[in-house]
Amino acid sequence: MEVIKQFIKDPVISRWIIVLLAWVVIWFAIRIINRNSSKIVKKTISQYKARKVITFAGYFVSILAVMIVFNYKFSNVGVALGVAGAGIAFALQEVIVSIAGYIAIIFGNFFKVGDRIKLGGIKGDVVDVGVLRTTLMEIGDWVNGDLYNGKMVRVANSFIFKEPVYNYSGDFPFIWDEISVPIKFQSDLPWVSEELLKILNKHVSDFTLKSKSSWEKLNDELFIENATIDPMVTVVFDENWVTHTLRYVVDFKSRRITKDKISKDILALSKAYPKQILLAGATLDISGSSIVVESK
After folding, report:
1. pLDDT tens digit sequence for 187-209
2. Strand positions, DSSP E, the chain
3. pLDDT surpassing 80 at residue 249
4. pTM of the model
5. For the domain that residue 250 is a member of, what is the CATH number?
6. What letters, b where the CB count within 10 A reaches 16 and e where it falls short, cover 149-184?
7. Do 207 and 184 fall within a single domain?
8. Which of 244, 268, 248, 270 is nearest to 258 (CA)?
9. What is the pLDDT of residue 95?
């Protein structure tokens, strides 16, 4: 017992015990605040941000507790940081920039959890924003289209200062997409354009209505042109066929399935009206050493 008393009476040991007790109280308080934050903040995204800010504040208060217990003065801390600053900045420059990136992400409206972004060359949906890294559920790579491939990728927050951040949802959660349909000259071209527009309106009318209000709000906030939201069919021709381009607005998460539905309806239309709409294509004729490309 005497050894334990002497151990506890040691000023350094006793101060560390106080620090540990302070840390327990701080993190216990943070857990209680995080659990009750959902009662104050209703939106899921706001709750997520609130928990991140509270946790970050917990780190700051924990460091402050060490400074107070060990009687550090802020003036002395400033001198110490000034002396060690060059070495710390060199050794931990990536960590420091990542922490700065975290603060910028939380308060700078770069992106939020649930957004589809491209960051550091990686494209995916944001599932978590940490102090040092942002976690993405990756899409693409060996999978065609905007579908998950199963990889969770963690990208350093410092990349928001180094590379462009592409946000596919953000303030305008819709994207423009296009489908090109080659049609033979023998087709009833005015009828084809009208029918393709009907197919577009059938599948994207809901997206069009929802996107108009979002686009108007974006126009009020940013200096951008008043772009065409309604679906449209444009035509261009060459010596082979007439290309009809279907342009429309779609939710960024529904791009693949919407294109699938539109394509199936176009194929069904060509089978139902083989005389009015003739889909064009190309064939390769390999004879000897020459290759001849013919429209079909």
Report:
1. 999 999 999 999 999 999 888 88
2. 116-119, 122-129, 133-139, 148-156, 166-167, 174-183, 232-237, 242-251, 282-287, 290-295
3. yes
4. 0.61
5. 3.30.70.100
6. eeeebebbbbbbeeeebebbbbebbbbebebebbbb
7. yes
8. 248
9. 79
